[in-house]
Amino acid sequence: MALRPGCRLEVTSDAVPPLREIVSRAAEPSTARFFLIKTSGNGTVELGQEVASENEAMVESFRVGGSFAVVTEWKAQVDLATGVPVIKKEAVKSEKRVAHS
């Protein structure tokens, strides 16, 4: 979006989430899992070793000259609180199984 000189850009309150929503999002525990990527000769990509954190995934992928993937798992839930069914996503909180070498 380009603005002409002298034009003002107005942001309405519905365009910016309330502070409590931003804070609650930041407080949510991460359900992301981190995997090194294994590639085969035919271009197939597979999830390789799981690592404990994004930092570890970055370091290990750099060390081996590869890449890493971030995986999140979600479950669809129906919210009937308003009387109108609304499908929402809910993070699946599964225990991470990370093998340390």
Describe the structure.
This protein is of the alpha+beta class. It has helices at 19-27, 54-64, and strands at residues 33-39, 45-51, 68-71, 74-79, 86-91. 5% of the residues are buried. The model has no long low-confidence stretch (mean pLDDT 78).
Strand content: 25-35%
**Count of the separate structural domains:** 1
Instruction: Report how far apart the termini are.
Output: 50 Å
Give unreliable regions as ranges: none
Strand order of the largest sheet: 2-1-3
How many strands, which pairing sense, and closed or not: the largest β-sheet? 3 strands, antiparallel
The chain-level mean pLDDT equals 78
Structural class: alpha+beta
**Number of DSSP helical runs:** 2
- The gross shape turns out to be extended
Radius of gyration, CA atoms, in whole angstroms: 21 Å
What is the H/E string?
HEEHEEE
- Helical proportion, percent range: 10-25%
Please report the total strand number as a whole number. 5
Write the layout of secondary structure elements.
Layout: H1 19-27, E1 33-39, E2 45-51, H2 54-64, E3 68-71, E4 74-79, E5 86-91
Antiparallel strand pairs: 1-2, 1-3, 4-5
Question: Summed up, what is this model?
Answer:
The chain is an alpha+beta fold and 101 residues long.
Structural descriptors:
3-stranded antiparallel β-sheet; single chain; 101 residues; two-stranded antiparallel ribbon; alpha+beta; 20% helix; 2 helices
